[in-house]
Amino acid sequence: MTQSSELDMTGLHWMMQMLQTADVGLVVLDRSNKIQLWNSFMENHSGVRTSKARDQNLFQLFPELPEAWLSRKIESVFTLDSRAYSTWEQRPYLFKFKSYRPLTGKSDVMYQNITIIPLTGIDKSVSHVCILVYDVTDIAVGKLELQKANAELERLSRTDRLTGLNNRGFWEESLVQEFRRCSRTQGISSLIMFDIDHFKKVNDTYGHQAGDEVIRVVASTLIQMQRETDISGRYGGEEFGIILPDTGAQEALIMANRLRQFIEASPVTYEDMEIKFTISLGICEFNSNLNDHTQWLEHSDQALYQSKRNGRNQANIFEQHPSQTWVLKVLQVMQS
């Protein structure tokens, strides 16, 4: 054997060692999707030995593969003589391998990036394709955990810690958006403001921790009774707000009385003490005379104060008195 031949054989031996020991999956397919190369990475993670994989149809050997999608990718590489790619964000994995990464025990599967490369023969035509499988589990898990942490921070930034309801800032932003929607579409919507009757007496009699428990129970009851489309929030202290999209005042009154009656019939037990309490509510339906969301709030509060003046433990709908309507019309004329 000549020195040149020996060097060629040595180079081939090195190349095969590199292919077998690379921390990347290597699969070479011919035109009929039969496996021509199956390196140690693929053997170790799939449990399929190279001797069994060779000359087997890839899709018959792994029926769980997305055949239609992968076949289109492979065919484009053969036809266009151009690489094709897929990232874990587009498709978490191609081969469902278990994750063996020591730093990423939070993932059961190996996240993968895929590259499909055209391999040309002596005649310069594409005779085979090589599928490269990259284990990117560490990167994927890190990014997913960051996204989860950011989502949690965003949730906390708009959540009232005591009740789990929307906090005042986020809830009021939602009210602004609902006001704009109704102004633009002339849609229907109602706003309920309510608070706990004689709440100072609850704190003075049973203590502030008992008062906090009462607020938590009210919030929990509200969450259970509201619709998915309703937007509730803790406005401050013992005061709460509910935005009811696509709801008229009379329908809002039904919901308000259901909530009021349920709370009246459900005293809170705190450290063997039974705390009975009630709520008062005010309702205002959106109308085109409202200048902004602040006035919507004010009208709901006025209805709430009417409930207080009438003896508490009741709900009232805001009504525009004739004198108020007249003054409003004069102001609108002056502004125009």
Description:
By secondary structure, the chain is of the alpha+beta class. The protein has two domains: 3-144, PAS domain (Beta-Lactamase, 2-Layer Sandwich); 160-328, Alpha-Beta Plaits, CATH 3.30.70. The protein is 48% helix and 20% strand. It is built from twelve helices and twelve strands. Mean pLDDT is 88; it is low at 3-14 and 322-336.
Please give a handful of descriptors for the protein shown:
12 helices, 2 domains, disordered N terminus, alpha+beta, Beta-Lactamase
What is the topological layout?
Layout: H1 3-21, E1 25-29, E2 35-38, H2 40-46, H3 50-53, H4 58-61, H5 67-80, E3 84-86, E4 112-120, E5 126-135, H6 137-157, H7 168-185, E6 189-196, H8 199-206, H9 208-225, E7 231-236, E8 239-245, H10 249-264, E9 268-270, E10 273-275, E11 279-285, H11 293-309, E12 315-317, H12 322-335
Parallel strand pairs: 11-12
Antiparallel strand pairs: 1-2, 1-5, 3-4, 4-5, 6-8, 6-11, 7-8, 9-10
Helix pairs in contact: 8-9, 9-10
